[in-house]
Write a structure and sequence with these properties.
The chain is mainly α. The chain contains six helices and no strands. Helix 1 packs across helix 3 and helix 1 packs antiparallel against helix 6. The longest helix is centred in the C-terminal third of the chain and has 30 residues. It is elongated. The model has no long low-confidence stretch (mean pLDDT 89).
């Protein structure tokens, strides 16, 4: 008599498959976030009007940096931390079944599109909504109004977040295959 091997159950029609996300996927997201935040940090340092990196970001954490007394190392350190954390959050976002079904994050095209979407999401969430409230709560006198929308600042913020998120998406796709 022939033995039957157990076959994994197939999902019913319309039911989303659950993706396997392992420890190295989170590391890949963190690495992509680090690389993307270096690119964004360089954009902030050389293109965006100062003092975002050396004054505003340190003030998020209570470091009383001013244009006369900037804290560029603290700004870079916190910025890189944000990039790594958002790179990890990117993995959770793109591996969510309905998001992954919309655009496969493990292909180069999918990584690019998902990266662009992540750049838009992070722009809306952080510089527009979270940052002004956080800076106001920290007592920073230069805190922008809520919501933080204006020209050209919002366009520059979007550009920076796209510069950040595209490498995150592409690196995750390249190393996740």
């Amino acid at each position: 008599m022939q033995s039957k091997t157990a076959q994994p159950a197939r999902p019913a029609a319309g039911q989303a498959l659950r993706r396997q996300v392992g420890p190295w996927d989170w590391v890949r997201g963190a690495f992509g976030g680090f690389v993307g935040s270096v690119a964004f940090g360089l954009f902030m340092a050389f293109i965006m009007p100062p003092p975002m990196l050396e004054v505003v970001i340190p003030n998020l954490y209570g470091i009383g940096a001013t244009p006369a007394n900037p804290a560029p190392l603290a700004g870079w350190a916190f910025h890189q931390f944000h990039g790594v954390m958002l790179g990890i959050a990117y993995v959770a976002y793109v591996e969510y079944p309905s998001v992954a079904d919309w655009m496969e994050p493990r292909s180069l095209q999918g990584g690019l599109v998902q990266g662009l979407a992540w750049g838009l999401v992070t722009t809306i969430a952080f510089p527009i909504l979270v940052m002004p409230l956080w800076l106001q709560a920290a007592g920073f006198a230069g805190a922008p109004p809520f919501p933080n929308v204006g020209f050209p600042a919002t366009l520059l913020g979007l550009t920076g977040h796209l510069i950040y998120a595209v490498p995150v998406g592409i690196l995750y796709a390249l190393y996740r295959r």
